[in-house]
Amino acid sequence: MKAKSCTWCGSFLLAAALAANAATTSGPITNSETWSGTVHLTGDVTVTPIGNLTILPGTRIEADPRADDQIGGIHTSRIELIVDQGTLVAVGTPTSPILFTAAMLGTNTSQPGDWYGVRINSTNATLRDCTVEYAMNGLDIEGGTPNVDYCSFRQSQYNGVHLKFSAVLSNCTINNNKDGIWVDGGRTLLLSDSTISNQWDSGVVAHGIVSVTRCTITYNAIDGIGAQIYEGAQSPLLNVLGSIISHNGELGVEGAGVVNVNDSVIEANGQEGILAGTSGTVMVSNTVVRGNGGVFARNGISCPRATVIGSIIMGNGVHGIESATVDIRNNVIAANLQCGINLWEWPGSGRPPLTIIALTNNEVWGNGTGIKVKSYATRLEGITSNDIYGNSSWELANDGVAAVIADGNYWGEPTTTELSNHVANLTKIYDSRDDASVGQVVIRNWSGTLLHPSPPTIVSQPQSQLVTPGVNVRFDVVAVGSPPLAYQWWKNTTAIEAATNASLVLANVQASAAGNYWVAVSNSLGSTNSVPASLTIDLSALGGLLSLDMYAGLTFSGTVGKTYSIQFLTDLSRSNNWSDWTPLTNFALPSSPCRFVDWSSPASSRRFYRAVQLP
Q1: pTM for the full model?
Q2: Segment 426-442 mean pLDDT
Q3: What DSSP element (H or E) covers 19?
Q4: CA–CA gap between residue 461 and residue 517 (Å, rounded)
Q5: Buried b (16+ CB within 10 A) or exposed e, 317-336
Q6: C-alpha pair distances (Å), 371 with each of 388, 472, 539
């Protein structure tokens, strides 16, 4: 018997196969699915314990805005993608990320909170190279140990990421949410190599244990890292390592328990740079705390107990360091508006009594008052082997009743001469000789010269700029070192006449002003050069014909902090002759690899370059 073909049967089987692999757009996933292209969700989708969801690179997952046909989950009118003990593999690529977003409704643009977001309670979940936007919470981590890296969370109504369970995040970008990351009490966040910026409130809200490593947390409206210590929350441990916390509207770093900040920059935050609550302890090492408190007149570091070692505390809005129990060693504490160090004790306040574990080997200069002490004890010792000089009001002020012993320090002038001449009432020491209600400052021996002479160190480099013709341009450098510091600005290889301040102002710049600008900072002990900052003039706004120059340069790797000389020659056959190499500039390597542009290169038909590490 001859077999008959059945075309419709084949079509039916193909359709059945396609239906079996179709994306679940609402309801549970109980088998294996792969999503690609555009997937439009109409209700909550739950990856169950027996479900497996793979999302391919470039997939766009759209959730109906402000709707949920499942009428379930945490929010009955917002769609949720829930991974409940199931498996999720959402791995995009840098060029084809996976996008989780809200669907457009007519001509309306998407808004934060249009859908709920991604909720994960699973160990078998991976998000990589994904972007989550317009959710209530971009990502809720509710359990398990999901892998989350190289992801972006933005435009969330509440949190970019909400940790209801401990988690590790790395290489993420979190911006333009209400709060970047919210950590519930008792949970632990390990965050590394990430950028958190431009939140409407805070970058990280830390109710649990938080460790931040090699992160940049900037330009958030309230705090960079905030523990909300005045709202009853407790953050027992906060670690910040190798990170930049800057330009946040209020606090840079706030903790309720122990706050460790190492190898970091805490800069230009509106309130305190680092704050701990009434029972808190701050431990800072090898860190720059600079320019904080300018908006709300606050301090660089403020806490009951402070250990500050090998750091630069500079230019803060009130005090550099304010604390009651201190171990302060080997720091530069300079140019703070009121006090470099303010040591206080308030009887009956519940704060610890004033205790100096050590206050030694510091350079304290250029502040309103170098050190202010307010103690109700009988005697206070420990201020020794410091350079305390050049402070505008007082080098040392005693506002308490204790006798303050301050032996073995260098005081500058006129104090050194007055001590040598046995003057009783020293001009720049405030004590009982100025006000009988306070205690005496006792100085039995002193140094006639600087104890810690130091060559210049650049704290803040001048920044490259792109401007239009006709505007004014300003380059700034911040340096520390034994005064006086001398400055000389250069353009390319030419010193700029009369440019001898910490700032360089160029008025009404034109195309000819383009180039590399850098500054040499020196004192009697040495000199250092800043990193070149490029000035680029954007001529496109002028219209018409434009001239076009091509600039040469190089990118090289080296040891950060070491000084390198950038040199060139025009004849490669003479490369073995050291005297034929022409120096362009010397500078301390700020990062590796480093890019250098030779703005003078159009003057030559060819140039060959090298970078030489200097001794």
Answers
A1: 0.82
A2: 97
A3: helix 7-21
A4: 11
A5: bbbbbbbbbbbbbbbbbbbb
A6: 8, 39, 52
